[in-house]
């Protein structure tokens, strides 16, 4: 009987020891969690931005606080999507490190957007001639009628914009003779819509009339060199000098864009604590 009691007593003591150990473990875990929570950097809270901003500011090294003030202003300007290249975002959950880094990213994205616009502008100049070929000319013919040179042809608008005025260049060449060219305006009333085709007749008044109508030995080439809509120039064929300069500017703009993209990719934002 005594042996049984001693065994039962040992069992109870064992359970009490296990309970104490489990309790110590839980208390240690809770203390660790509180310690970690206490070490987590403060974050911005839009529901009480003034107080949370002050806490975030104080968490930073004193040498970074002026930079933080300027960075936060930049973020507040950009958070509604008004800064080019940055979509709307929330300040909630951002640490001081987040704020400083995101301000740099906002500036880089803005520069990148402008650089991309420069690339697209120069690309349009460089590619203007091939784009203008989308305004197709078919069945071009000339005739001499009542002392005037008439040109009749069909225009098919393969561009993405309406056209109300276009300048037609006519080149006439013949072996053994200097080539002759001239440009004449073509008015579309109403404006020629995208994907619309229309028959056109104009009176040729430029210097090319001396070679028209052509004989069997004369070669005639036609193309549009400038198109307008509503008084605005939509596309214009560049001169050889303009084309060379545009290609140089395009190379510079592409290099700048690619460098900015590398800088932006290198600035990986740390995750916020939201």
In short:
Helix content is 46%, strand content 27%. With 274 residues, the protein is an alpha+beta fold.
What this model shows, in words?
With 274 residues, the protein is of the alpha+beta class. It is built from six helices and seven strands. The relative contact order is 0.12. It has a four-stranded antiparallel β-sheet with strand order 4-3-6-7. The chain has two domains: 41-126 and 240-274, no CATH class; 133-237, Immunoglobulin-like (Sandwich), CATH 2.60.40. Helix 4 (96-126) runs antiparallel to helix 6 (240-266). A hairpin with a 2-residue loop joins strand 1 and strand 2 (148-157). Helices cover 46% and strands 27% of the residues. The two termini are 64 Å apart.
Distance between the first and last residues' Cα:
64 Å
* Integer average pLDDT: 88
The fraction of residues in strands falls at 25-35%
The biggest beta sheet, please? 4 strands, antiparallel
- Overall geometry: elongated
Using the CA coordinates, give the radius of gyration.
Answer: 38 Å
User: What is the oligomer described by this structure?
Assistant: single chain
Structural class call reads alpha+beta
Q: What's the total helix number?
A: 6
Strand order of the largest sheet: 4-3-6-7
Number of domains: 2
Regions with little confidence, pLDDT below 50 for 5+ residues: 1-5, 7-12, 21-37
Helix fraction bin = 40-55%
Overall number of strands: 7
Secondary-structure element sequence?
A: HHHHHEEEEEEEH
């Amino acid at each position: 009987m005594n042996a049984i009691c001693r065994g039962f007593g040992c069992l109870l003591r064992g359970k009490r020891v296990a309970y104490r150990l489990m309790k110590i473990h839980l208390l240690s875990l809770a203390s660790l969690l509180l310690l970690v929570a206490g070490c987590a950097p403060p974050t911005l809270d839009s529901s009480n931005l003034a107080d949370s901003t002050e806490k975030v500011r104080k968490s930073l090294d004193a040498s970074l606080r002026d930079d933080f003030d300027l960075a936060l202003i930049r973020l507040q300007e950009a958070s509604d999507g008004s800064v080019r290249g940055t979509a709307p975002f929330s300040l909630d959950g951002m640490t001081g490190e987040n704020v400083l880094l995101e301000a740099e990213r906002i500036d880089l994205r803005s520069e990148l957007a402008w650089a991309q616009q420069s690339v697209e502008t120069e690309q349009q100049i460089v590619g203007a001639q091939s784009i203008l070929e989308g305004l197709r000319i078919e069945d071009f013919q000339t005739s001499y009628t009542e002392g005037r040179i008439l040109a009749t042809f069909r225009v098919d608008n393969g561009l993405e914009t309406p056209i109300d005025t276009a300048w037609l260049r006519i080149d006439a060449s013949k072996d053994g003779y200097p080539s002759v060219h001239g440009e004449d305006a073509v008015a579309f009333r109403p404006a020629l819509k995208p994907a619309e085709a229309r028959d056109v007749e104009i009176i040729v008044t430029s210097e090319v009339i001396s070679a028209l109508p052509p004989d069997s030995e004369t070669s005639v080439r036609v193309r549009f060199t400038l198109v307008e809509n509503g008084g605005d120039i939509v596309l214009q064929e560049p001169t050889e000098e303009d084309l060379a300069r545009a290609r140089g500017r395009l190379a510079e703009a592409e290099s700048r864009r690619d460098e900015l993209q590398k800088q932006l990719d290198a600035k990986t934002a740390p995750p916020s604590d939201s």
